[in-house]
């Protein structure tokens, strides 16, 4: 592939990696990971609510990795309530999973920035073999993609298996019991999915530029291709 096309491919991959790093950093700080509604089951049972009356006992909830808010509805109007995971909710949520999600988000942001830097270095610099050349680009992209997948798996298990929304809704509730009425992942969660797909696409772009996957055997054993092919 001509040097100019390689440069364009690496520039595009670098810009995508940088956009992913910025998007993931913005996603971590928002409350837009989960949106849903919770039902005050105790109040609904007391008045035997059904149909339109049931809406008087359904409040909204949304949260991110650090904080969130919910509206407490028990038949007498909504009452907003702000909450923070640290340190308020650490006793009732699966703290190890939650901290792991935040840790992998940090790793994703760092390695997305590293990948962006090395893509630009390969586009305009004179890289040498191993971590500065195509092997390094594959490595940074693989780590970033893997971290994105782990974030989605861990956070999904925390929400769906450990019933995170229900635990938050029942936090400091002595008389009333709340149950999840509906919940769906919001924009920040899907941003992490997009980041994972972009880093997978970056690995395909490296291959499209003419560099074999690491540890793959070359068809022509007599020809040794290294990062010198990237030198312009």
UniProtKB/TrEMBL annotation:
GO terms for biological process: equilibrioception; sensory perception of sound. It is a multi-pass membrane protein. Keywords: Membrane, Signal, Transmembrane, Transmembrane helix. Residues 1-26 form the signal peptide. Its main location: membrane. One of its GO terms (cellular component) is membrane. It holds the Pfam family Clarin-2. InterPro entries: Clarin. The chain crosses the membrane at residues 97-123, 135-155, 189-209. It is found in: Membrane. Belongs to the clarin family. This is Clarin 1. It comes from Cyanoderma ruficeps (rufous-capped babbler).
